[in-house]
Amino acid sequence: MSNKEQERFKIILGYLGNHEFATKSEISNLLDVEEKTAQRLLAKAVELELLLTEGEYKSTVYKLNFRL
Fold it and tell me: Does the predicted model carry a pTM greater than 0.85?
């Protein structure tokens, strides 16, 4: 994982520490990246079990994985 990814994950986790959930669009705006980039980051965070998903397709939201 690159330093840039680590920094972005820290920002995402910080945001979710203050919000119940986040959408791909919110993360895209937060990080000032394209939605596709936000989607890749969120997918990797889910793969690493940092985040959980709820919903499907356009209604997907991301939440912190408190089971860590």
Answer: yes
